[in-house]
Specification:
Chain lengths: 460, 228
Amino acid sequence: MSAVAHPFSLKRRLLISSLAALSVVLCFAWLVLQAAYKNSLESAQKERMRLQVYVMLGAAEFDGQYMAMPDSLHDPRFDQIQSDLYGIVQDTGGDILWRSDSSAMLPAEVVDNLTMYRMEPGSPLYRHLWAQGLFLYQYPVVWETADGQSAFLFSVLERDKSLNSKLATFRFQLSGWFGLVVCLALVLQFMIIRWGFQPMDQLALDLKFIERGDTDRLSGQYPEEVLPITENLNMLIESERQQRERYRNTLGDLAHSLKTPLAVIRGAGDEHLPLDEYRQLVNHQTSRMDEIVQYQLGRAIKSDMRSLPKPILIEPIVNRMLNALDKVYREKQIQVALNAESAVAFLGDERDLMEVLGNLLENAFKYCNRQVGVLICRDPVDGLVVEIADDGPGVSEQLRQSILERGARVDSSKPGQGIGLSVAVDILSSYNGSLTVRDSAELGGALFRLTLPEPKASRN
Amino acid sequence: MKLLVVEDEADIRRQLVNVLDSRGFTCESCDNGKDAAYLGLEYPYDIAIVDLGLPELSGIEVIRRWRAEGKVFPILILTARGDWQDKVEGLEAGADDYLVKPFHIEELVARLNVLLRRAAGHASPVCRFGPIALDTAGRTVTVNDQPIKLTSYEYRTLEYLMLNAGKTISKAEMTEHLYHQDFDRDSNVLEVFIRRLRQKLDPDQTLKPIVTVRGLGYRFDLSHDPEP
């Protein structure tokens, strides 16, 4: 047997999706924050190097041949060998006029390449030399000297390891904080989901109680989003219970009511009746048994879908049945007057509707002389109304009550009495509807009027 | 009348065939929808009884196929459940009447006769042509209101001719519709029946209701001028 793959639970879905969403948002935030921090560090670095150049410019003295600098500049790192700050002054030809003591260990190719960038005097240049791990700030100037004008290039270089280490520290701390935020958010999310899904857990628990037989309906307090489900479930459970009850009753009734004709037949076997009489008796009792079976079958298979009904337009169903019956009763050349509000709908099972209408319409066709009238309308008091009238002999006052008796025991009914009306009444009462019979003022025969209450407006 | 019984329950099928045979129908039967669809399309039946719950092809589908192919013989459906959805669907598919199981054989025969009469265009159970009256319900024949004694085969022959009055019926068609397959088609039994019918209906040979159409067959016709 292949294992059935269960879909993820709702809680797990929400947790996984929250975690995924949070990770995406935090990754993005992490990238943005570290980029912003790096930018601010680099801006500060540039500003600092610009100041270093200005200090050099202020301190430098050129006598027309040599560039002189004080022994000690503002920042002592210029004087320390293997420090990470270097200063160099060159002329336009690239000849070094002055270099800080710290630059002694600076690779020669770095120094040689300092004049490769073409710049206008007064326009500074700031670059990060990734390969060498250095920041470079250069400032070309033109000075008035006694011999005319002289151009110089002031360069300050600083190792980038300090900035990189600050950035690494920041990234580490940022990751730590974000990790903490993720954990906290997940814990919060988990608690929110637990709280939010509490009604569903309650529902599962209530259903378990029903399964165990401790209760027969969902009785917990549920929020309005879950209420339609619990209400419908309660209706389904109730409907299923009723259906079970009906099956049980039907079986009981069936068994009980079949016993009488069976006993009669068995008794007749011992009576040594003449063949003709015996045949007639068996015939009569089997007809009776057939009626019992048909009636109980009709009651038992009656639909139990009332809990989730869908509207069924009555007029098209009536038209179908009229066409079908017209075929069967063609000889009578019956004139049918159908007067229907086209939008009138029955909220229930189509089979039930057909059973009720079929039995009533067939009676009308059977007993009419020439005319049958059908009215379908909506009444403010009675709800949905269907009237079926004919011009036949009508139903006598004495018979009216007995033919419409709900659940009339067929085994006690007279031979030949149809079961259609009893089944119709039974179905109608399960929808809280009713069936009455009176004389038709218009056609003179019987008028059967069935009413079904309109369903209450559904909850918003 | 040639009748097709389509019923999957062997006992009911046997009972139907036996009883209807004894009531003057020429019955053939089958127990599934597929065979029924084939038989109905291939052979000229006068009427069919179709159970709705059939194996291989449902009764409703069988009826639909017959009607789609232009078969117009009347069809009576049998339904065990008896709910209206089945009845309406059957009638919409092309059936002409329904009967819920179990049923009395008398009711079935009466319904079949109504359908046959209706197919022949007669509303009343009594088909009357001049002085000759055929009562399909009572299976009796009268001439000038005097009952005529006919054997079962003679009645069948006359009924078929009268329900198809005005139409020339070939010997082959009549043999096909009236008699079982084991009937000796080469014999002159049909001529014998026709001769006896003529003698019984018209001993003076004034009406001449059954006309021999040379080379083609027989026709029930009272519209011609009887010989003086």
